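Exam revision sheet. Question 4 asks you to relate a sequence to its structure. Input first:
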Amino acid sequence: MKIGFDLISDLCLSPEENFNWENKSTSLMCIIAGNISNDMRTVKQTLGHLSRFYQGIFYTPGFLEYENCANVDHRTEELLELCSGLPNVALLFQHVVIVDGIAILGCNGWSLPFTDKIDNLEDDKETARYEDVVYLKRSMDKLQKHLDVKKIVMVTHAVPNKQLYFGEQPKFIEDQINLDYCLDFDSEKKVCTWAFGSYEKIVDTTLHDINYVNNPYNKSQPYWAKRVNVEI
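Answer key, structure tokens:
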């Protein structure tokens, strides 16, 4: 049995932009790998709009959603409250979703440098990245023993490892531990797909039997979801 997900990321919408997803969905479920907007009203409107076309939306925020905030934790609480009020939307923060034997495990990952507007959150960002790495490791370990989980789909806004920059990795990640460190704890080899954002080039490649895929908008027209199939 194959289960499909539509993958979207890096919309980077401003409040003035018109975003219309009418007749563009190809699956019953959608993964959003971050960077909807730095405006919370636009984030809410976009997620609400998308929820009309999907039975399930699994969303991890990107660094853009934290751009205008004074505190990472406070903004996360705001996003949690925002998503809880929308139908069919699940925020992947300290929360694993299981659908038809597939566990969807996600986090931000915090690998991108902050813009000048959010340099004051540098310490918060480092703490948040460490917490995400630990969360992925612990969750991966637990999911190995979960009898209902046959496959795992990873979702991060950050690029999971340096290889996926294909020799063009920025200097700021040189000293960072790869997010795919958690794969060391995938003893049952349940991880089949890793969806990510924050990288402007299209990636759809397989490394060590795992499909790494992204689908950045980058204001390209026309923009379509990328369908990701998972076979159970």
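Marking note for examiners. The chain has three helices and eleven strands.
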